TrEMBL record:
Descriptive protein name: Rab-GAP TBC domain-containing protein
Composition skew (Acidic residues), residue ranges: 118-148
InterPro entries membership: Rab-GAP-TBC_dom, Rab-GAP_TBC_sf
Bias (Basic and acidic residues): 104-117
Function noted in UniProt: May act as a GTPase-activating protein for Rab family protein(s).
PANTHER family assigned: TBC1 DOMAIN FAMILY MEMBER 22A, TBC1 DOMAIN FAMILY MEMBER GTPASE-ACTIVATING PROTEIN
Record key words, sorted: GTPase activation, Phosphoprotein
Amino acid sequence: MSSDGNKRQFWKRNAAKVPGSIQHVYGAQHPPFDPLLHANLIKAGNKPPPATPGKPKKATTFQEFESTTSDAWDVGDDDDELLAMAAQNLNIEVVMETANKVIENHSRQQERQRQDDTTELEQREEEEVAEDEEEDEEDEEDRVEEGDMTSPEVSLASQSSPYTDGRLVKSHSEAPIGSPKDVAGEPAALHRQRSLPHRPPLIPLVARMADQNTSGTLAMTEREASRLDKFRQLLAGPNTDLEELRKLSWSGIPRQVRPITWKLLSGYLPANAERRESVLQRKRQEYFGFIQQYYDSRNDEHHQDTYRQIHIDIPRMNPESLVLQPKVTEIHIDIPRTNPLIPLFQQASVQEIFERILFIWAIRHPASGYVQGINDLVTPFFVVFVFEYIEEEVENFDVSSLQEEALRNIEADSFWCMSKLLDGIQDNYTFAQPGIQRKVKVLEELVSRIDESVHRHMQHYEVEYLQFAFRWMNNLLMRELPLRCTIRLWDTYQAEPEGFSHFHLYVCAAFLVRWRKEILEEKDFQGLMILLQNLPTMHWGNEEVSVLLAEAYRLKFAFADAPNHYKR
């Protein structure tokens, strides 16, 4: 540094003369512009910019270099001093008084809003009580008129029995609804809470298992009852005709017989009825033998990454499990991504079942190991086999209410049926996933033949099929369809020869062309990718899936035995 007192320190000089010096941006990190506090900036801004010589003079000494050098970071030093002085001059009493006024005003507004809400609630409750009284009077009049036709014993039985006309009728309330006189001494809010029916958690449309094309009643149509009878007659024989069972199953399997039908079509159960029970016992014991032999090794160094990934891919796990097993790394990742909207899959016991199934499969298949996406393939089997033990809806069902033996059977059956499925598509999950790469390429060729406009439109905006269809092949469209539609789709896959490995390709082609109009309306890469990764299928049911399968069958009939049709 120079010892001359008249000179500035190194990199210090009048910042206003520095071309391109840094200026404050007001409104982001700084307060609004104040001319009084920033007068020097105004003066600096009014000065004309210094003339830039064509060739700058080269500094010959350190003093000349210092005299021609400025520090751009020094801009605003004087401004900061002025701001600090202004802050010191503020009267602390004024500040406190203003703050107290703000707090008082806020408290008054909150109290006023609370009073308004209470008044509105009381008015609504009075209206509801009045309506209930009117309905009770009307019902009483109707009962008086019909008193001669119905005896008291029959009336009481019809009210208390959970069965009506041979069908289960679910109660809309866990506690009887009392009259206003019974709860006159209770607070209005408590009366309203007890008078409302008990409602389970709201399930999003995409996560509901019931077919959206039906009315939701338990009554079956005549055609559905006839199909169910055909299935039962076929399954009741000593040796089930699997070919005939496949023909019946192609158009969908009734819920009542779906568990045993899936087990037969997947090859898990033999066609001979006498051997089925012994096979089930042997395979279930074999599975839990694997659990005893391998599951404790999940924390070993060479298995912990696999287990952590599975644990995260299954629906959201309790934080305690992550704390108790800090070394576990891979099974833990994929669990939250499996149907996170369905409460069934957020139960701890269900998550533990999924972890065991996926970990044992990964240990027994070292060629592929666990690959993200396999976790999705367990869920249809698990849901279908739960239906074997319950009658009600499965979305909110508490599996802990099942007997331990039933849960063990569901777990073992799900493992073996998933294993049978993956045996046919294991090249989808080996190193580099060659099966998926090959199928996506064939899908591209197929779409170019059946709908050239869609194909050229995606080519024009540089959309690669692998960017969206990889997930279609990896997860078998489970991320694109509601679970109820996946189960219906798998009815046909189970019935179709090589349904998961071959027929699925034509389903993907039909699925893509199904959105032809929406695809052609998108005019950029981003819009196309958002559409293809978020297709609006949440309202889909059996009808939409049946149409999709019919179109896929037509494509298979035209192209499956004529591969040269792919090429031009």
